[in-house]
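User: Could you walk me through two proteins back to back? I'd like the raw sequence and the structure tokens for each, with a short line separating them so I can tell where one ends and the next begins.

Assistant: Of course. Protein one, sequence then structure:
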Amino acid sequence: MNAPHPVLPAPPVAATPALAPCLIVNPRSFRASRGGLAARALVLGRRYGAELIESADPATIASGLDHALAAGPRPIFIVSGDGTVQALMDQLVARYGEALPPILALGGGRSNLTAVDVGGGGALLAKLERALARQRRGEAFAIEARPLLVIEQAGAPARHGFFVAGGLIDAAIRDARRQREAGDGFLRRGALSTAWYLLKLALLALRGRSPLRAEELQIDVPGMGTLRGANRVLIATTLQHREGLFNPYAARGDGALRITAIAADAPRFWRSLPGILRGRFARTLTLDSGYLSGRCTQLTVRGLLGYSLDGEAFATAPAPPVTIRTGATIRFLQP
């Protein structure tokens, strides 16, 4: 398992009792839409005097934020999935640059990679009420700092988030979403639908029958090297992945951005996959054998046709290179 990259401890953030937080709830996020959770979160927000935004529409959330923050800086509490957090990051950076308010992210979606990484997974309503009460009393919050992942390409707006996937992984994420939207039943739309789909896809790939085709990419990582050719895996993140067994990045290099890229013809892939998912890269899994993984501050990808950022799909032009780098630091409040 990868050891956490050393970072300087972040100072606590003092609450301002005179200014209640802005609470954003996406009632269409997977978990928030179950069992009346979104409505109960809003009831808590009203009880503690929070400025409420209930919407799944980024434009509505953006206008609500402008109104909420016009009176002065205040923390933002959000109950949603990864996609809504990603849209919020784009909106905040566009409007406020690097002077970003602290955020409490509570996982109301399906995978909740970001929220889980910064303490917002599980016991959502209890954590929300605890944070609302602490804010009202003006008590300081401990924080987890995470730099934003920034994706840039000439002619397109910059995108901001925390986990990006390209190539076959992007195609699988998009196809899994199409499967959910077109199907019904627990295995097609339930909590385990993505895992079920990926298992079926892996079984097809093992039999040489995968419906997905690898993209021809050139991935340049300063200080680590260049990987060219048909690509099987391209993922990058600024998250730590301390929870659970999913942490597929080698413990080498420096920087807050972590990347793993694997060539389509890399040997011993399926045999090595269980270890790779836990960050255990054997000495034989090197750049020369088609494996590129570790820490950096920036990378460039050529030939990318699209990517999924925190589960949201974005298209790219095939010719201009795509740059992935670290950006502003987000201060996540600990509930």
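----
Protein two, same layout:
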Amino acid sequence: AMRLVVAVLEPYQLDSVRQALAEVHVTRLSIADAHGYGICHQSMLSQQVVIEVAVNDDFVDRTLSTIRAALVTEHSLGSDLLYTLPMTDAVQIYREVRGPEAI
């Protein structure tokens, strides 16, 4: 089985999270700028970063604990979020590979 891990964090936390993921061999990820209302910024939009990582089940705990540990070491404003979503399929278009092997 596969999961999509989504992390919403502050822009200044991005480098430490990326480096921490690379150290545990999680290197394929997407990063996007986002705006959102958080716990600390309820009345105004705040700049955020969204990291999406598709992982096989054997990498879920490693990915979540690595992101969490990297965020704990930063001085967080309390608006960081982690989500895990089930994935039904993944496709590597250039190799025509599907499923867990595509991740």
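The first helix runs from residue 14 to 23.

Let me know if you want the two compared in more detail.
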